[in-house]
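Write out the 3D structure for:
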Amino acid sequence: MVSRSFECKTCGKPFSVKSEILARYPGWEPAQCFPCKDAAKPGGRKGRGKGRGGSKAKGRRPRKKTREENLTTAQVLAKYSGGPQDGVFTDGACTGNPGPGGWGVVHVKDGEILEERNGHDADTTNNRMELQALIAAYEMLPADAKVKVYSDSNLCVRTINEWAAGWKRLGWRRKTGPVENLELVRRAYELSLKRPGVELVWIKAHAGSLWNEYADALATAYARDER
């Protein structure tokens, strides 16, 4: 069965939806995986205070939902100080998904900004902006760079680190169907191969990391009419 991959906006994990379901709702892109969606419902896993027999249900603590603050870069610098102080930090954003969106990249060393870039698109998706941010990050770095690139998109990180090599062997196809955003995936992957000393790693979004928040502020500048 053909399916499409998405990234959950709550937990950050990739999940798939069958194409036959997506065909019923043209233009729709799910924002949450099914476990997170179920947990948010009244009476769902997150809302159940008691299990069978009236006793409190045991298990994992509910995940905290991340919140988009829409800060400027100056506000981010004033508010945050945690997280890694070296590396290239990337982020993508979209209003509507699909809708207007933006991407941002900042390269820092010892807490000092070496370079930053951002851009926007009038009609895009969150995953495309995350991939565009990765492309800009790789293009920012020389072939002999030895640095970490951080992304809060688990889907994009796994795409480059785990899946793209296999898709390339299959002629840039997945076993279950076409690769989403193929031109961006191919570009990001080929750039990563030319920079073997660059390590792409996942970072949790909105967890107090200064430069992740800064990249987010660059990515959302379009929503504040900043360029």
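The two ends are 42 Å apart (CA to CA).
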